[in-house]
Amino acid sequence: MNILITGGTGFIGKALTKRLLDEGNTLLFTTRENDPDNKSINLAHSTHHEVTSFFERHQIDGIIHLASLVLVTHSPDDIKNLIESNITFPTLLLEAAREAKIKWFINTGTFWQHYNNEEYNPVNLYAATKQAFEDILKYYSEISTIQFLTLEVSDTFGPDDTRGKIFNKWMNAKNSNEEINMSPGNQMIDILYIDDVIDAFRHSIDRLQNNKNKLEKFSLYSRKPISLREVSATFDTVFNSQLKINWGKLPYREREVMQTWSKGLSLPGWKPKKTFDQGCEEIKKLIKS
After folding, report:
1. Which 3 state secondary structure label does DSSP give 174?
2. What are the start-end ranges of the E strands in the chain?
3. Which of 120, 130, 229, 266 could form a disulfide with 185 if both were Cys (CB 3.0 to 4.6 A apart)?
4. In CATH, what number is assigned to the domain containing residue 66?
């Protein structure tokens, strides 16, 4: 297949790119450098006609939309970028996809759309923009022939993750023996190993090619949420470390997620293969090798 990926340089994007290339697919990307003849295009600096022509010229079958601006908290100066990155940019993508008659579109949502495990209650403005784009997807599902599928993703971890996530902070603290000030640590986390997440995206592509549903949404769960304190205990056990965590030195964040989302539909035919401790063991093996 010919597949366009947005956010291909992110943690999930890099792992998904490798899987799809290994399977023999042709991948195209949205980038900050406009290079339409070399399988990438800058949507922000391209006209609608240029984007549509790019899609048609490369005979793109589907789009996997991973790119987003993720901000836990925002300032007034962030609002324009949040709207442009998470709503305007992907809507321009949809308009060109509709005209080019793209077959399918996979969108990425977030568990942060469900504060207090509610059907919709955004944790922050970032989560609100993700929900707003889903409402726009509904419109395009009505006026186009594109099949849409949204995957709501929980926390993720794995090798080659350069994000400022807690797992990486702990790994740095383990190596430097530094102390870490943290909240009381009773918030629950539903965390997935990266290979399982990639399996879900790959399974979603197959699903889109084998059914005619115009608009679907599924949540990716481990179904085994654990507290942040339990995460640290498992980390210490697997990596034979003794993290110096000062629990309760920091307050919980405003609208801290204490309870994970658990009411969404599971992706049919998919379930995670690795628990958190098994994923840690995989990372440990890679570090040793």
Report:
1. helix
2. 2-6, 26-30, 40-41, 62-65, 104-110, 147-153, 155-157, 179-182, 188-189, 191-193, 215-220, 226-227, 244-247
3. 229
4. 3.40.50.720
| In-domain check, residue 211 | yes
Domain that holds residue 141: 2-158+190-224+261-273
256 within domain boundaries: no
Which residues is 179 bridged to in the sheet? 244
Structure tokens at 264: 């969404």
DSSP β-bridge partners for residue 152 = 109, 219
DSSP letter assigned to residue 256:
-
pTM of the full predicted structure?
0.94
| Tally of domains within the chain | 1
Query: What tens-digit pLDDT sequence spans the chain (289 residues)?
Result: 999 999 999 999 999 999 999 999 999 998 766 555 567 888 778 899 999 999 999 999 999 999 999 999 999 999 999 999 999 999 999 999 999 999 999 999 999 999 999 999 999 999 999 999 999 999 999 999 999 999 999 999 999 898 888 888 898 888 888 999 999 999 999 999 999 999 999 999 999 999 889 999 999 999 899 999 999 999 999 999 999 999 999 999 999 999 999 999 999 999 999 999 999 999 999 987 6
Residue 237 lies in a domain: no
What is the distance between the alpha carbons of residues 63 and 3, in angstroms, rounded to a whole number? 6
Q: Is residue 106 one of the residues assigned to a domain? A: yes
From CA 131, how far away is CA 60, in angstroms rounded?
26
